[in-house]
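Quick log. Single chain, no ligands specified.
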Amino acid sequence: MEKNSIKNWAEDDRPREKLTQKGVDALSNSELLAILINNGSREKSAVDLAKELLQAVDNDLQKLGNLSVKEFLSLNIKGLGPAKAVTIAAALELGIRRNLTEKKITKVIRSSDVAGYLKAKLQYRQNEVFVVVYLNNANKILHHEIISEGGITGTVADPRLILRKALEHRATALILSHNHPSGNLKPSRQDELLTHKIKEAASYLDIKVLDHVIISNEGYYSFADEGLL
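-> predicted structure:
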């Protein structure tokens, strides 16, 4: 235990001291994770555990961010129990929310405006989620809401619910969006049919469907940009 204790390292090599002295940019991913892990096991230091965790997700922080606590524990890394799993999950979620805040928009000019915001919100979700953004005549965002959540391969959105909420928020335009956890950005036939069904229903209420944006960790796909609306 003593041999592996970070307390016995040179001060410059200890993650907490290194961060204090040199700033966060000076630390590697494993050192940053080690600070969250806090202490090691009898056989390994916190940094060793962090390196083992990163290796288990192919050194991909996005994969790590996608893990639920249950999936985290299923990696069976000795020394990383429920408390540490929860701490790491919470820290990664804060990073996602910070990114979401930075990308927050109030007005939509082009599809990329809303795509960046929705990508920050949806790209790490492991289940499919359908979101609607409600706008006024000036394309200012009045409200956005998750309408439905599904499984890994799909979700169903009810046009009646979407339009009811549009009337509640006095919206004159909508942007539809959902994520593809698989990473594939190509719209399915069901995606196309649902989009046109909502667009047709909305037209009777003088509400425009401006776009349908598909989000994944690979980027985004815009129905409007591709001429599908």
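The domain at 105-222 is CATH 3.40.140.10 (Cytidine Deaminase; domain 2).
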